[in-house]
Amino acid sequence: MSMPNSRTATKHLHFYHFFSWVSAWSYPRGKKKGQRGGDGLYKIIILLMSSTLLAQDEGLKAYQSGDYDNARKYYESILSEKDEDAAAQFGLGTTAFQQQDLQGALDAFQRALETDNAELQSKAYYNIANALASQQKNEEALAFYRKSLELDPSDKDAKHNYEMIRYQQQQQEQQQEQQDQNQDQEKQEQQEQQKQDQQDQEQQDQNQQNEQDQQEQRSQEEQQQQLAQEDEEKQQDLQHAQAILDALKKDEKVNQKRQMAKARSKKLEKDW
C-alpha cells in the first residue's frame, strides 16, 4: 500500500499494511436482500487495508459503517499521491461498486490488476466478473471468473458464481430453444391452418360455382322446354286452324256441288 498524502501521514506513517478480505453479498437489479436463490446472487470480495500497529484504516471503518462516500474519498486521497497503488485501486473499486458506479468500479479493478500480487489479481478479476455479471454481460463475466480461478483454483466463490452463470446460460438457452420450437410449431400450425382455410375456401368457391352452373343449366333447360312447349302449342294452333280452313273449304265445295246440281235440275225441268 502506498503512503497516504500529507493530510493523513500522521496517522499512517511507518504502518505495516496487509490485505484483509471481507465478503459482502451484492444483489443485482431487481433482486432484494434475503432472496439468495441461485439465479441472481453475486458475492463481491472487498479488499481493505488493515494495520498491525495502530487503529483500523479509515477506509475500512467508513466502509463497514456504510459511509461509502468517505471511504471512496479516502482511497482517492491515497491515489492522488500514488495512482499505481493497487490496493487503494481495489478499495476504490469496492466502494464504487457499492455506490452503483459500475464503470468506476471496473476502471479501478482494471488498474488494480497491474500489481504483482497474484492474490490481489485474482480478487480483482473476481470483482470485475461480478460487476459484469450485474450488467448481464455473462460471457465477459465468465471469462474473468476463469482468469480468477487460474490464479486461485481454490476460490469457492469464483467457482460458485462461474457455475451459477453457466447454469443460468444453459437454462436461458433451453428456454430460448423451447421458445424457438414453440414459435416454429405455432408458425407451422398457422401455415397448415392457412392452407386448410385456403383449401376450404377453394372448395366452397367450387361448390358455389357448381351450384351456379347447375342453376344456369336448369334455367336453360326450362327455357328450352318452355320454347318447345310454345312451339308445340303454336303448331297445334296452326294445325287446328288448317283443319278448320280445310273443313270450310270442304263445306264450300259441297255447297257448290249442291248449287250446281240444283241448277242442272232446273234446266232439265225446262227442257221438258
Fold topology:
Layout: H1 9-12, E1 17-26, E2 42-51, H2 58-64, H3 68-81, H4 86-98, H5 102-112, H6 118-134, H7 138-151, H8 156-271
Antiparallel strand pairs: 1-2
Q: Would you mind describing this structure in some detail?
A:
The protein is mainly alpha-helical and about 270 residues long. The chain has a domain at about 10-155: Alpha Horseshoe (Serine Threonine Protein Phosphatase 5, Tetratricopeptide repeat). It contains 8 helices and 2 strands. It has a two-stranded antiparallel ribbon. Helix 6 packs antiparallel against helix 7 (about 140-150). The N and C termini lie far apart (about 185 Å). Residues about 1-20, about 25-40 and about 50-55 have low confidence and may be disordered.
What is the count of DSSP helices, taking H or I runs of 4+ residues? Answer: 8
> Can you identify the CATH class of the domain at 9-154?
Mainly Alpha
Shape: rod-shaped
- The tally of strands reads 2
Provide key terms for this protein.
72% helix; 8 helices; two-stranded antiparallel sheet; rod-shaped; Serine Threonine Protein Phosphatase 5, Tetratricopeptide repeat; 272 residues; 2 strands; mainly alpha
Short description:
The protein has a domain at 9-154: Serine Threonine Protein Phosphatase 5, Tetratricopeptide repeat, CATH 1.25.40.10.
